[in-house]
Amino acid sequence: MTDIPRRAVSRTAKLAALPLGFAGRTVLGMGKRVTGLASDVISAEIQQRTAEQLFSVLGQLKGGAMKFGQALSVFEAALPEEIAAPYRQALTKLQEAAPPLPAATVHKVLAEQLGPDWRDRFVEFNDTPAAAASIGQVHRAIWRDPGYGPNGGPNHRDVAVKIQYPGAGDALLADLKQLSRLGGMFRAIQPGLDVKPLLVELRERITEELDYELEAESQRAFAAAYADDPDIYIPEVLDASPRVLITEWVEGIPLSEIIREGTEEQRDQAGRLMAELHLSAPMRAGLLHADPHPGNFRLLPDGRLGVIDFGAVARMPEGTPEPIGRIAALAIRGDADGVVAGLRAEGFISQTEPIDAQALLDYLQPMLTPVAEEEFRFTRAWLRAEAARLASPRSPAFQLSRQLNLPPAYLMIHRVTLGSIGVLCQLEAKAPYRAILERWLPGFAPVS
Q1: Where are the beta strands (DSSP E) in 149-304?
Q2: Residue 147 — very low, low, confident or very high, per pLDDT cuts 50/70/90?
Q3: Of the chain's two ends, which shows fewer C-beta atoms within 10 Å, N or C?
Q4: What is the secondary structure of 417-446 as a DSSP string?
Q5: Is the model more confident about 38 or about 123?
Q6: pTM value?
Q7: Using an 8 Å Cβ cutoff, are 171 and 62 in contact?
């Protein structure tokens, strides 16, 4: 059996070796400085070699390393082009590829979760996985459904059977513990990139993502909220147990493929629908889809956006907090004092520390350009420019950011928003994002 626990020693060794390789490259860089080689050349060489080793190891792993790689890959658009270009394909692979479980292991999990007669529930089951993710893999099958096919139609349908890797929980925790030691590597690739909050959040959500019955509950809530929706398609859940989830099969083009080779029309359509989903779900379903990497979405032949993974969701029964929309609208209108008052009330700014209201407005307005205009095209160049503006220690924006806090209640919304923007920039998608906010974001009054 080649399940996760048996590979734990090898996987941990690979992760542990990463900082050693990084240390060696840093020493190499210092040696070249003595010879007078330009520092920017040294930096670029260290960045590229670090990225090559990091992405290579992450791509070989299941468990937490792959989960982290998927989360990080949505930020690929913010990496410097000379680093992002050679490794874009490696990052994308993290979203949909992993070594498969042997058929015998798959059958054992199915027998444990569905009962010894599990085969009787399928007309056909393909032992070769159709896709793999961080904690499980997906098989295509034909489900025997007595309740389906009224009017004399067939009583079976194509399904996706998601099967959790044995030992996935222990592997996730072990990998994330190792990855938490690698912050220096990511700063070498992208100065200012702090991965620790992302790792903390991933650890906190492991328990939820390991429970496929909980995922089924979330998917059913989304499916009910978007039933017969002309733009968003949520596949029906047919059966669920703690480690097996069976849903309708979704036929469509993965967003990762559209990012690589899609037409402008496909990119724009996918971007618009992603924005619609993430902004409307809290109001319509009381939930936020919290895993916005391209592997979780398909562009269907009829133009709808299919969503296929609900392992990570945030429960928002009251919808998106109204202050987010209200403060964004104040910033677009140029009301510096109103912005300061709103941010203080929500805990983004200290109640006692003075702050330059105009400087704060100057800090925020470039981020809001996509919703200040009637239409906007997200691009990698725009995101890289914003990342450079916010991450450079010498920039006024960086200095001002040190006066801001991120209240815990807004952590998930912030992370999902950044991840969604990362995907929109990978798609280079143009859409009327302001109108989408006006429709779905509480407090975001129309801006003239």
Answers
A1: 156-164, 232-233, 237-241, 244-248, 253-254, 287-289, 297-299
A2: low
A3: C
A4: HHHHHHHHHHHT-EE-HHHHHHHHSTT---
A5: 123
A6: 0.77
A7: yes
Rounded to 10 deg, the angle between the 264-285 and 411-427 helix axes is 160
Please state, in angstroms and rounded to a whole number, the distance separating the CA atoms of residues 317 and 173: 29
CA distances to 264, 295, 422 from 267, rounded to whole Å, are 5, 15, 14
Q: Identify any residues that bridge with 131 across adjacent strands, giving them in sequence order.
A: 138
pLDDT for the residue numbered 289: 95
Determine which helix (DSSP H) or strand (DSSP E) holds 205, and give its type and residue range: helix 196-210
φ/ψ of residue 21, rounded to 5? -65, -40
- 253: helix, strand or coil: strand
Q: Which two tokens stand for residue 85?
A: 């270009």
Q: 408 or 448: whose pLDDT is higher? A: 408
* pLDDT at residue 58 greater than cutoff 80: no
Closest by CA to 79, choosing from 363, 430, 426, is 426
User: Residue 153: is its pLDDT beyond 70?
Assistant: no
- Residues whose CB falls within 8 Å of the CB of residue 267, separated by 6 or more in sequence, listed in order: 258, 259, 427, 428, 429
- Angle of CA points 404, 340, 290, to nearest 5°: 55
Q: Give me the pLDDT at residue 162, please.
A: 95
DSSP conformation class of 254: E
Give the tokens for residue 409: 């209640």
Rounded Cα–Cα distance for residues 141 and 124 (Å): 6
How far apart CA 34 and CA 55 sit, in angstroms, is 30
> In one letter, which amino acid is 111?
A
Residues 331-359: pLDDT tens digits? 999 999 999 999 999 999 988 889 999 99
pLDDT of residue 29: 38
Q: Name the pLDDT band for 312 (thresholds 50, 70, 90).
A: confident
- DSSP structural state of residue 235: P
348 to each of 327, 335, 412, how far by Cα in Å?
Answer: 11, 17, 15
Considering only residues 192 and 379, tell me which one the structure prediction assigns the higher pLDDT.
379
The residues near 280 (Cβ < 8 Å, ≥ 6 apart) are 439, 440
For residue 141, what are the β-bridge partners? 125, 159
